[in-house]
Specification:
Helices cover about 15% and strands about 35% of the residues. The chain is built from 6 helices and 18 strands. The strands form 3 sheets. Strands 1, 2, 3, 4, 5, 6, 7, 10, 11, 13 and 16 form an 11-stranded mixed sheet that branches. Strands 8-18-17-14-15 form a 5-stranded mixed sheet, with no helix packed on it. Strand 17 and strand 18 form a beta hairpin.
Length: about 280
């Protein structure tokens, strides 16, 4: 199933895509369940299948404004240097453990909303990634059962202000400028995906392929990331793990290529979605 978060007629809600449009699920799966995160917390994504069976669309996508898939994620844990091509282009050594940093939920934007180049930098870079949304939380989750904790997958552009990323050894400043985390357009449940390692991920800038890989190329696979992250912090339903970006980032090209107002970047993961982000300028 494909779930979307949105605003309609001034109110936030969520629904599921069906042929021809969207079935609204806001408040219909349980009392007080008005967001996708709340539906995940209440373990109601399966109930949505029963609810929509035999129903036609209530409205089209033209009637809504999409929100980030999980606008109110409690944790967004980002993984750095998780493709060998990207590790090699950064000239960083092999790592025994994943590189983890955080992104704040209020930096996120939705499908076709502009990523904003900040006033203080011209080094706005792209990072095409697969996002994993946690369905069932836990602590010290074993790798063997870690994928059972996944609610679904989505596209993400973890856009980065590279010079600010290098101000210190910590990545946080360069990863948390407003309107730099594009998340969407939908959450796709695992049964639609099957073996995620067969997924291809492509990043395109103005139609030109800049990043191209498969999810099988992850240095630390998704089960390892879930198990590792749950060892230092309890994972909760609706938490998000960004699995890393392939090689080909603009900062490591010769000469470097950075996104500028008027550009368009696409994260394309067939089966998961096509995330389109125009580039704008911070006022």
């Amino acid at each position: 199933m494909q779930f979307v978060s949105y605003t309609r007629l001034g109110h936030a809600g969520f629904g599921v895509r069906v042929e021809g449009g969207i079935v609204d699920l806001t408040g219909k799966l349980g009392i007080g369940v008005v967001t996708l995160k709340q539906a995940i917390e209440a373990d109601l994504l399966g109930a949505a299948q029963t609810f929509v069976t035999g129903r036609g669309p209530e409205f089209t996508e033209a009637d809504i404004a999409l929100l980030p898939v999980i606008p109110d994620a409690g944790k967004i844990l980002c993984v750095g240097l998780n493709y060998e091509t990207h590790r090699a282009e950064t000239k960083r050594p092999d790592a025994k453990y994943p590189t983890i940093f955080t992104r704040f939920a209020d930096t996120q934007i939705a499908q076709r909303q502009p990523i904003l180049k900040p006033r203080v930098s011209d080094h706005l870079d792209y990072e095409a990634e697969l996002a994993v949304v946690i369905g069932r939380g836990g602590r010290y989750i074993p790798e063997a059962s870690a994928l059972d904790h996944v609610a679904g997958y989505a596209c993400y552009n973890d856009a980065t202000i590279r010079d600010w990323q290098r101000h210190t050894f910590q990545f946080t400043p360069g990863k948390n400028f407003p309107a730099t985390g594009a998340f969407g357009p939908q959450l796709v449940t695992p049964e639609e995906i099957g073996d995620y390692t067969k997924l291809k991920i492509t990043g395109r800038l103005n139609g030109q392929v800049m990043q191209d890989a498969t999810l099988a190329d992850l240095i630390f696979p998704i089960a390892t990331l879930i198990s590792y992250c749950s060892s230092f912090t309890p994972l909760q339903p609706g938490d998000v793990i960004l699995t890393g970006t392939p090689g080909g980032v603009g900062d490591r090209r010769d000469p470097p290529i950075f996104m500028k107002p008027g550009d368009v970047f696409e994260v394309d993961i067939p089966g998961v979605g096509l995330l389109v982000s125009p580039i704008g300028q911070e006022p």
